[in-house]
Write a structure and sequence with these properties.
CATH topology of the domain at 1-99: Nucleoside Triphosphate Pyrophosphohydrolase
Structural class: alpha+beta
Largest sheet: 4 strands, mixed
CATH architecture of the domain at 1-99: Alpha-Beta Complex
Length: 145
């Protein structure tokens, strides 16, 4: 397929929220700009021939070495200035995992580790807002569903 447009288009990314039984979230330390050295949800840009959930699973695997069978879509975030590089719209997926799977940082992640939801490091982009809204909208008891 060839795509040509007479005006700019936004980029689309996917991000994963993985929550452990003890209410920790998996984050990656960014190895590249923007926000190099800051923590973020694992994720990245979709490829043109990829479904959204498949892209999120791929990015999660590339950045943490963790493979998840099923992710649920949470919401999309698209504030105009959420990414300093260009207009970016992110579709967020989530899963509750049974154990804190040991991650292995890869791709553009320099580290990957679990953080308690109430003790988060400084986050890149609007990922703190995303996690705050996730905590408000997704009941904690859904960890068993």
């Amino acid at each position: 397929m060839t795509y040509t447009y007479p005006y700019p288009r936004p980029a689309v990314t996917v991000d994963a929220i993985l929550i452990s039984p003890n209410q920790s979230v998996l984050l990656i330390e960014r190895g590249r700009q923007p926000f190099q050295g800051k923590w973020a949800l694992p994720g990245g840009f979709i490829e043109m021939d990829e479904e959204l959930e498949a892209a999120c699973k791929r990015e999660l695997d590339e950045e943490t070495g963790i493979r998840i069978e099923e992710l649920k879509q949470f919401r999309a975030f698209g504030s105009v200035n959420r990414d300093p590089r260009h207009r970016t719209i992110s579709v967020i997926f989530y899963a509750f995992v049974e154990d804190e799977i040991v991650p292995e940082a890869g791709d553009d992640a320099s580290k990957a580790q679990w953080f308690p939801l109430d003790e988060l490091p400084e986050l890149a982009f609007d990922h703190l807002q995303i996690l705050d809204e996730f905590k408000e909208e997704i009941p904690r008891f859904s960890i068993n569903s």
